[in-house]
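re: that complex we talked abt at group meeting.

here r the seqs, copy pasted straight from the sheet so there may be weird spacing, ignore it
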Amino acid sequence: MSNWLLIMCCGLITFLTRFSMIALLKKEMFNERIREILSFVPSAIFPAIIFPAIFLDNSGDFQLENNPKIMAAIIAMLIGIVSQNIIATIISGLASYWFLIFMV
Amino acid sequence: MENKYRVFLKGIFDVSPLMIPVVPFGLIFGVLSIDIGFSPIETMGMSLIVFGGASQIVLLQLFSGGASSLVIISSVGAVNSRHLLYGAVVSEHLSDLKLIWKIVISYFLVDQAFARSNEYFKKNKDKNKYFHLFGGGITCWVIWQTTTFLGIVLGAFIPEKLGLSFAVPLTFLALLVNDFRKLINVIVIIISGLVATFGFNYVPYKAYVIVAGIIALLTAAILTKLVKNNE
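got the structure back, here u go
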């Protein structure tokens, strides 16, 4: 398969994951219970991206020692809980990460 | 008309802080793609046609590892299957739109825009609210295309030691700040994270994201039911 065909196919399948539910679902299909459960989507999906990126290395092995990402993520989370502010969370996370890898 | 414009700007404004970590992420993608052997045009093509950061990185990883096209395409689909849930969440708010708008908005339905507009939709009822998602999505789009381009051009000058890949989990962490204070959310977060981490090597086609997501969502359904029964 040529690179371009591969890219087109990846683009098409990605678009379909975004479009299909928006196209198929109707307003009448929603009730309070479904809304309540769907409100947990960010909490259910985002950690599945966060945790492996922090605790595993590139080859998928656990990396628990000498891993500044864990400490930086904890600091960012604590700042996030206290401040409820997205910018403060991101900046504290990046700043503590760089502090840990360059200064410590 | 004026109202649409204001909602559009609000979308841009709400998503902007989340663009800080997208910058290094886009740079990494551009650098990596050229490194692996895609041409600059193909690399730009990926960001324009796929427009999905995490799945583009997966595409590169599998491609460089010599995976077959079928494996690459299904893995990209699996990584992006989370958008099915995003679509389900926002569809209710977009159901009155014309088909062409549904197509346009779908193209821009990325994580950051979804997260911020989902919050906005819950609080606002006016009929132009979809312009919030449009504004947020376009903001992500501009940043992603620009940084991909810069990654291609600057490539060799960006030090690997900056550990920019940490920007990815950090973005998603920042998107959960409001949920860390709610007990059920915290349980759901931990379950999703653990399933994904332990399933990472065992679930085929990098589908651990959606597997963890569905298990965590079922947990949320059970817990909210239990809480209600006890009230």
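couple things i noticed - The first helix of chain B runs from residue 2 to 15. Residues 33 and 39 of chain B are 8 Å apart (CA to CA).
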